Amino acid sequence: MSRPRLDQDLARRLARSPKLGAALRRAARAVAAEAEPLTEPEHSVRVVDHGRGVRVVNTSPVAVREEWGSASQEPRAPLRRGVRAAGLRLDETR
Amino acid sequence: MDLTPDIESVIRDYLLGVPEVEAIVADRVVLKTPEATEDPWVRVFQLEAPRAGKSPADYLIAYYMQLDCYSGTAGELEDASLLTRTVRAALTEMHEHDHPGAVVTGSRIHRARRFPDRDFTPPADRYMLTATVWAHATQEGP
């Protein structure tokens, strides 16, 4: 009976997979589409593919305030809401 | 019509009834920033209220909340820290208590982070709690 072996190379091979990359970009675009209406000015939300992963970035000069709020502005949370509205699970522990 | 609970008001009223919270903030658990910001205060904000689980019934709601705990401009960092930890403990026990118009079935703290508010000079000490509170309306409705 053979013993199961841990595939140490799996993560690296997955990261190079064109299919996974395309899926990540699709998911990121969905998040960006949900987040965009909650930001100002328009077109502040970008999808950035940096080769080792895909990020959704709010480039607004007031992005931090939009996301987390302040005394004078309630949180709009475009990125957090965008992730959830796109049907993804938001992991806040990272 | 079956209305879902007004969870912001439910949480506000609950926290105001917790002696340990009330001892710090008196009546300053608010839904909007108070005019006077010298003393500690908590702002309760509902980010989202999706239906929980896969049931088609719009019954059990997973309220995604942000609670901003401020020391107040006259306070110290330690005040904000104590306030946050007290609110966190109270939220965690929320399902053990009765609430007008709502049955809270559980709560989960996602994150508690120190996040100074730069609307103030110098920046005000603030801790930010994010949490999910699961709740549905009582038989009598909210």
Outline of this structure?
Chain A is of the alpha+beta class. In chain A, 41% of the residues lie in helices and 11% in strands.
Tell me, briefly, the overall form of chain A.
elongated
Q: Segments of chain B where pLDDT lies below 50 for 5+ residues?
A: none
Major pleated sheet of chain B? 5 strands, mixed
Percent range of helical residues of chain B:
10-25%
Q: What do the pLDDT scores of chain B average to?
A: 94
Strand order of the largest sheet of chain A: 1-2
What does this structure look like?
The complex is a heterodimer of chains A (94) and B (142). Chain A is of the alpha+beta class and 94 residues long. Chain A has one domain. Chain A contains 4 helices and 2 strands. In chain A, α2 crosses α4. The radius of gyration of chain A is 17 Å and the shape is elongated. The mean pLDDT of chain A is 90. By secondary structure, chain B is an alpha+beta fold. Chain B is built from 3 helices and 5 strands. A 5-stranded mixed beta sheet of chain B has the order 1-2-3-5-4. In chain B, α2 packs antiparallel against α3. Chain B is elongated. In chain B, 36% of the residues are buried. The mean pLDDT of chain B is 94.
Question: Which keywords apply here?
Answer:
heterodimer; A: 94 residues; alpha+beta; two-stranded antiparallel sheet; 4 helices; B: alpha+beta; 3 helices; elongated
